[in-house]
Amino acid sequence: MSKKIYKTPGVYIEEVSAFPNSVEGVPTAVPAFIGYTPQANHLGTDCIFVPTKITSFIEFERIFCFPNSLDHVQQYSPQYYLVRENSKPRTGDFLLIGSEYYSIVPDAYTIYYLYNSLKLFYQNGGGDAYIVSVGGYGKASGAAMQVGAPLVNPNVQLADLLKGLAALKSEEEPTMYVCPEATLLSVAENGTLMQEMLLQNSEMKTAISIFDIIGGNRENPLGNNAEIEAFRNHTGTNGLAFGAAYYPFVGTTILGKHDLNYTNLFGGNLRTLTTIISSQNPPEETTLELLKSIYNADNSKSVNENHRDLLYISTTYNAIISAVLEVANILPASGGMAGVITMVDNSRGVWKAPANVSMVGVATLPIKIDQAEQEHLNVDTISGKSINAIRVFPGMGILVWGARTLDGNSLEWRYINVKRTVIFIEQSCKKACKPFVFEPNDANTWVRITSMIENFLTILWRQGGLAGSSPRDAYFVNCGLGVTMTTDDILNGRLIVNIGVAITRPAEFIIISFSQQQMVST
């Protein structure tokens, strides 16, 4: 330390730093949601394509949702139609009203996932998050999509989502990319988006992407392997260690009976609803009278009040709303998984695999996977692209039953927690080393950096984040001339630190061997 020269007699106090620099761990669970929002305006400023940090769902509502009036405003207003069938449908969602079968089919132009996925995120322990709004909702088509056709929303544009993704290049804090509405693209466009997400992840090395699989919302009568293979064929081969996929979608309890009403049926056409209810035997006269008064604007009640009255007096209306809610509540799993990962990180640590845990707010699964079917998902010897299953277990409920990245054939990056722990260590050490830029490239600096990183890794080992019976077995940190650097490195201003860590890996397969022991007579 250089000595200060004093010229005036007196007593002087100097504070000397007693502690070395330290590595402060970066946040590990900060997802970035990319998608469509009701609106995007923060304090009068347009927030479209601007990554905006929020800390709660209330803050999301304040920035990205419509203001609530006295009559509740629907932030998300999907449209559903009942299409009469000649016989019981073999596939898809349907409802029996009296003796008639009706398929429940949405107007694809009105289906979006981000709003409810963010609710699921916070139900499962979510905290800080970034929102990248790529615009508001588009116009409805005014008609039901074709029964049995893939759910593709033409209002969801690949260009919008790619632009929202690119906006995150300036943000290093997000550690997960989540884009639930990617499943509303065509299979080819979804593949393009996923490849771009993985490429950006591998370049920035700060986040992973959580993917959903198109077709995970319902059983395929020809088998679900076609959707799985389509997903694997369209994810490419680059950056697979930075991606994790979950299957199937999940049946949630996000929307309740007072979140949708008759304005969400048939494009708000009350005549069609009246026709269905009037076909019942015996007819629901009180219900028909109320519908007539609503249609003719003969009552002064609000939509919510009329909706509550219909639920109270009409069994048919109740059945329709319940059936539609069951369909509307099926969501991609990625938003909930972002919450699960956040919860596991906060309670156990980033090194704990986010598996063998339940997802709050999930009541059913549209596709039931058994052990034999999961074998094909968990291990794919050709592509190595593992897919994590969400399964129902008797007596245990619905559990996340997989913890692999898409790089399933890699012994190094096979597990999600391994990749995320390494990202955590890399980014923490990177930020801690920034104050040493332009410091003298000499032994004093090397020792300071080495001890700083060793202290950080020792704490991580004590918390259970690194394997090994001692710190010596858990990690090493090397830095110095003749060790990690040559004279040429020093002349060119390069200070090189080599770090090796032993990351804990999950016990994915627990094998208990039994053998019979011959009884020995005494």
Key phrases:
522 residues, alpha/beta, Rossmann fold, nine-stranded mixed β-sheet, three-stranded antiparallel β-sheet, 15 helices, 19 strands
What does this structure look like?
- The chain contains 15 helices and 19 strands.
- The protein has 522 residues and is an alpha/beta fold.
- Among the domains are: 277 residues, 3-Layer(aba) Sandwich (Rossmann fold); 86 residues, no CATH class.
- The strands form 5 sheets. Strands 4-8-1-9-10-11-16-17-14 form a 9-stranded mixed sheet, sandwiched between helices. It has a 3-stranded antiparallel sheet with strand order 5-7-6, with helices on one face.
- Strand 6 and strand 7 form a beta hairpin.
- Helix 2 runs parallel beside helix 10 and helix 4 crosses helix 5.
- The protein is globular, with a radius of gyration of 28 Å.
User: What structural category characterises the helix and strand content?
Assistant: alpha/beta
Count, helices? 15
The portion of residues forming beta strands comes to 5-15%
Helicity, in percent?
A: 25-40%
Strand order of the largest sheet: 4-8-1-9-10-11-16-17-14
> In the CATH hierarchy, what is the architecture of the domain at 31-76 and 112-254 and 329-416 at level 2?
3-Layer(aba) Sandwich
Q: What multimeric state do the chains show?
A: single chain
Q: Provide the gyration radius in Å.
A: 28 Å
Average of per-residue pLDDT values: 90
Count of DSSP strands: 19
What is the straight-line distance between the termini? Answer: 80 Å
**Global outline:** globular
CATH topology of the domain at 31-76 and 112-254 and 329-416, what is it called? Answer: Rossmann fold
Q: Sheet bearing the most strands, described?
A: 9 strands, mixed
- Spans of at least 5 consecutive residues whose pLDDT stays below 50 are none
